[in-house]
């Protein structure tokens, strides 16, 4: 493999990494901490500690990125959050 091919391959990999989307969870006055935590564990495969930290960040900062990845992976996860009554979007 030539140096040029190697550089092109590295650029392609970097572009793929940069194309990752995020699920952003927003604060609301309706859902309890327990519900948000349970939903993040279920929908985003969070550990209980991750889910609790995200729920606290959402509460105090108004929003938090709860999952990053390919759009195809995030779409059903975001739908689960919305179906559970949470406010989230993919950005």
Q: Give the oligomer, counting copies of the same chain as homo and different chains as hetero.
A: single chain
> What is the terminal separation in angstroms?
36 Å
Overall geometry comes to: elongated
Strands, total number: 3
Rg from Cα: 17 Å
Low-confidence regions: none
Main sheet: strand order: 2-1-3
* Classification by helices and strands: alpha+beta
Helical run tally: 4
The share of residues in helices is 55-70%
Largest sheet: 3 strands, antiparallel
How large a portion of the residues is in β-strands, by DSSP E? 15-25%
Element order, helices and strands?
Answer: HEHHEHE
Mean model confidence by pLDDT: 92
Notes on the protein architecture:
The protein is built from 4 helices and 3 strands, in the order αβααβαβ. By secondary structure, the protein is of the alpha+beta class. It has a 3-stranded antiparallel β-sheet. It is elongated, with a radius of gyration of 17 Å.
Quick tags:
about 90 residues, alpha+beta, 3-stranded antiparallel beta sheet
Q: What's a concise summary of this model?
A:
This protein has 91 residues and is α+β, with helices and mostly antiparallel strands. Helix content is 60%, strand content 19%.
SSE layout:
Blueprint: H1 3-18, E1 21-26, H2 33-44, H3 48-61, E2 63-69, H4 71-83, E3 87-90
Antiparallel strand pairs: 1-2, 1-3
């Amino acid at each position: 493999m030539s140096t040029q091919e190697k550089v092109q391959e590295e650029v392609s990999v970097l572009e793929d990494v940069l194309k990752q989307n995020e699920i952003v969870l927003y604060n609301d006055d309706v859902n309890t901490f327990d519900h948000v935590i349970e939903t993040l564990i279920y929908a985003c495969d969070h550990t209980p500690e991750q889910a609790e930290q995200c729920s606290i960040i959402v509460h105090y900062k108004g929003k938090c990125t709860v999952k990053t990845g390919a759009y195809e992976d995030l779409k059903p996860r975001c739908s689960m959050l919305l179906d559970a009554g949470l406010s989230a979007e993919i950005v």
